[in-house]
Design goal:
- By secondary structure, the protein is an alpha+beta fold.
- The chain has two domains: 299 residues, Aldehyde Oxidoreductase, domain 4 (2-Layer Sandwich); 149 residues, 2-Layer Sandwich (Aldehyde Oxidoreductase, domain 4), CATH 3.30.365.
- Helices cover 35% and strands 16% of the residues.
- The protein is built from twelve helices and eleven strands.
- The strands form three sheets. Strands 1-9-10-11 form a four-stranded mixed beta sheet. A four-stranded mixed beta sheet has the order 4-3-2-8, with helices on one face. It has a three-stranded antiparallel beta sheet with strand order 5-6-7.
- Helix 1 packs parallel to helix 2.
- It is elongated.
- The two termini are 43 Å apart.
Length: 455
């Protein structure tokens, strides 16, 4: 139910139509069962929606970018599907608090030179090779950030007597860099460097609970839990620091804990005096008022702020064989405030490559009995490293009020736009409509032959 529901909840909600009707039929088959995968129903929805939007714009003679932006939801709008459905839970109206889609469309178009290439007959031709045609395509997409009122993350932080910290989180780093990002957030609150942390994750024998690394939730949910735990630890540190500073100089104006700022591995009073993190730890653990400075926090969000993105691609199509090469992919993403641009761009690039396989060449083929006929690499085609197109990632930062430091998701959205952008690029190159994916050479060749036959 949730996979099919997300197809409507995310893809059909990008455009603020006054009336939306969504119906899904979920069918049991004798093929291998499907499981959760990055995007979780949303790439399938945008495969249809973004091809339809392109089709409408072309038929009406409208600019595809302007047409999309004129109809897309904006900051302050109500999420169109939120009052009807929320992944099987009681629905509640949600409002868009941050949306950088217009900037994503603009910056992505500039990076891929859309306005130079779109509608330019000279660019579409390859000199000396009349059988080759270039095309450019676009898709506007949105996703979600965590599952509201369901996803929960927790974190625990304690200070050690050398001024370092232990951070324990239930969130699992699957290669996404979440250990680094969560550590960065805690360090920001506590006024120290990420290198001052020993971070433990995943081992539920001694870490707090976490619902799981899924639904684009870790930075948003576990990050908020980490920030809350760090803020509790920071308050305890300020209490100890204020006591220490007041004892050091009884003639100086008294220092209140709320006036102390944690930065550069020390607690700083307004008058310039300071005590180091290490001194605070030693005082709290070994002197009067001994106590372990530590805290645990958990977080569940009532919101699921959508990230937005514009996906652009260019292709070169061989009209004699149906084979096409993907030359460039550019994705401009509004993921709120980007905590770690290196790990976030890695997420986007990796997601675009996964989506490239989904849209272009990866297909599970079955016989009449439901058996898979290509169950190994070779017959099952995936992109190799030497086949990668040029890729570009652009971050359009907005501030999401509900997210830690203004952050929202980037993990799943790169799966959403590559497929329909490829199909739209093929239409731009040769005027063929490809409604069935992946866009295998034989399918493209048949569409080209059908076009000739109809013509």
């Amino acid at each position: 139910m949730t996979v099919a529901g997300n197809t409507g909840h995310k893809a059909m909600s990008l455009y603020n139509a006054p009336n939306i009707k969504f119906r899904a039929d979920v069918v049991y088959t004798n093929t291998p069962p499907s499981g959760a995968y990055r995007g979780y129903g949303v790439p399938q929805g945008f495969w249809a929606v973004e091809q339809q939007m392109e089709w409408i714009a072309r038929e009406m003679g409208w600019d595809p970018l302007e047409f999309r932006l004129n109809n897309a939801i904006k900051s302050g709008d109500e999420h169109p599907a939120s009052k009807a459905w929320s992944e099987g839970r009681e629905a509640a109206p949600e409002f868009i608090q941050s949306c950088g889609l217009a900037e994503c469309v603009e910056q992505g178009a500039k990076a891929i030179r859309w306005h130079e290439r779109f509608g330019n007959p000279a660019w579409h031709q390859v000199p000396g090779k009349p059988h080759l045609r270039r095309g450019i395509g676009v898709a506007a997409v949105m996703q979600g950030t965590a599952i509201p009122r369901l996803d929960m993350g927790a974190a625990s932080i304690k200070i050690n007597d050398d001024g370092s910290f232990n951070l324990l989180v239930g969130a699992t780093d699957l290669g996404t860099g979440s250990d680094t990002v969560l550590t960065q957030m805690a360090a920001e609150v506590l006024g120290c460097a990420p290198e001052d942390f020993i971070t433990y994750s995943s081992d539920t024998d001694f870490t707090p609970f976490d619902k799981g690394a899924y639904a684009s939730s870790t930075t948003y949910i576990s990050g908020r839990a980490t920030v809350l735990a760090a803020e509790k630890v920071a308050a305890q540190m300020r209490e100890v620091a204020a006591r220490m500073l007041n004892q050091q100089d009884e003639n100086a104006p008294p220092v209140a804990p709320e006036d102390i700022v944690l930065r550069d591995r020390a607690a700083h009073a307004p008058d310039g005096r300071s005590v180091t993190h290490r001194a605070i730890a030693l005082n709290s653990l070994h002197h009067e008022h001994q106590q372990q400075i530590m805290a645990t926090a958990s977080y569940v969000s009532p919101d699921s702020p959508p990230p937005f993105a514009a996906q652009y691609v260019t292709v070169t199509l061989d009209t004699e064989t149906g084979q096409f090469t993907v030359d460039e992919m550019v994705m401009a993403v509004d993921g709120g405030v980007i905590v770690n641009p290196v790990t976030a761009s890695g997420q986007i690039e990796g997601g675009m490559v996964q989506a490239l396989g989904y849209g272009h060449c990866e297909e599970m083929a079955f016989d009449a009995q439901g058996g898979m006929t290509n169950p190994q690499f070779g017959p099952y085609k995936i992109y190799r490293a030497d086949e990668m197109p040029e890729m570009g990632v652009i971050f359009v930062e907005t501030y999401e009020p509900s997210g830690p430091f203004g952050a929202k998701a980037v993990a799943e959205i790169p799966l959403d736009g590559v497929g329909p952008a490829l199909a739209n690029a093929l239409y731009d190159a040769a005027g063929i409509r490809m409604t069935h994916g992946p866009l295998l050479p034989e399918r493209v060749w048949r569409a080209l032959r059908q076009q000739v036959k109809v013509g």
